[in-house]
Amino acid sequence: MNDISQKATASLLSVDGLSVDYGLKGVSLPAIQDVSFELRAGEAVALVGESGSGKTTTAMAIAGLLSPNARVSGGQVRYRGARLPIDDDAAMRPHRWSETSVIFQGAMNALNPVHRIIKQIAEPCVLKLGLSRDQATARARELLELVGIPADRGASYPHQLSGGMRQRVMIAMALACKPSIVIGDEPTTALDVINQAQILKLLVELRSKFNLALILITHDLSVVSESCDRVMIMYAGRIVEDGAVADVFAAPKHPYTRLMIESIPNPAMGVRVLRPIPGDPPTLARRPPGCPFNPRCPSVMPVCKIDIPALAGSAQGRVACHLHSSSLTQSDEVAAHV
Ligand code: SF4
């Protein structure tokens, strides 16, 4: 099998040059730009970055769940080779939940407070799978057991469950229509450390059991190492590095990735406190010319303030940084090491 046919059969989701703008006060601001990646069946990919990096916009665009003031300004998303109408809510409905579903953060806001949870899990089974009410209720009971909640607790309202149990309900709902891709939007952020670990363990088990492809949005690198195969680092609306989790953690290429990894407390290395990256990420309205990380980068060079580095590399790993560009001039190289 040649490379091209291998790629065609292996790729479940193909994101190609995706750009999304937000309209704010009559101005169009780029939220993500030229985002491209492939997702294979059963693969777990983490989208990592600070607030405003574009990770949630990327994931919501894939699910066709962009906010009303967002506009797809370029690129496309293909699922099993067919282009998805990601900017058309009605046209995305047959796909959403059946093929791609979302575990939202903050289950209390995502669940309907006036309906029992069994009803909320059963509803998509009626609408999407065409099950009768009784069949859908039986499936909802199965799903509750699957995520570690006794089926009889299905009679509860959301406020009668703990935060961890509500997040398990969100996972049951995401799996209700047997999707191939599950997007987890910071699914453990609102939980305490013990519940975080349990929910992550559950996601890892379910992913393996159903061969799910997982896109996990997080700003927490420790979550990534426990649950994902590949990591994509986003900064100012662009992917700046991606690769296998073990490779990126062992030898980060992009200065932002390196600083993020170094910021994590590591008692074994004598680092006991969080070391934040100096400076702030740029806002949508104010992005610096050239590499968007240049005002915070310890390796900044003259070229970084002029040219946006392209994301380059291979299927094994890509990086967008002039330090790894073959066109680096001698004076830039000198500047990078002083
Ligand atoms: Fe730093 Fe330049 Fe690389 Fe941007 S392109 S991360 S400023 S070295």
Describe the protein in words:
- The chain is of the alpha/beta class.
- Among the domains are: 109-175, no CATH class; 257-336, no CATH class.
- It contains 12 helices and 12 strands.
- β4 (70-79) and β5 form a beta hairpin.
- α5 (117-129) crosses α6 (133-146), α6 packs across α7 and α7 (163-175) runs parallel beside α8.
- The protein binds iron/sulfur cluster.
- Iron/sulfur cluster binds next to loops.
Decide which structural class fits the backbone.
alpha/beta
The biggest beta sheet reads: 8 strands, mixed
Query: Biggest sheet, strands in spatial order?
Result: 6-7-8-3-9-10-12-11
Strand proportion, as a percent range, falls in 15-25%
Helix share, percent = 25-40%
Count of DSSP H/I helices: 12
Which geometry do the CA atoms define? Answer: globular
Any idea what the radius of gyration is?
A: 21 Å
Element order: H for helix, E for strand = HEEEHEEHEHHHHEHEHEEHHEEH
Q: What's the overall average pLDDT, rounded?
A: 88
How many beta strands in the DSSP annotation? 12
Unique ligands: iron/sulfur cluster
Q: Give the termini distance in whole angstroms.
A: 48 Å
**Low-confidence parts:** 1-9
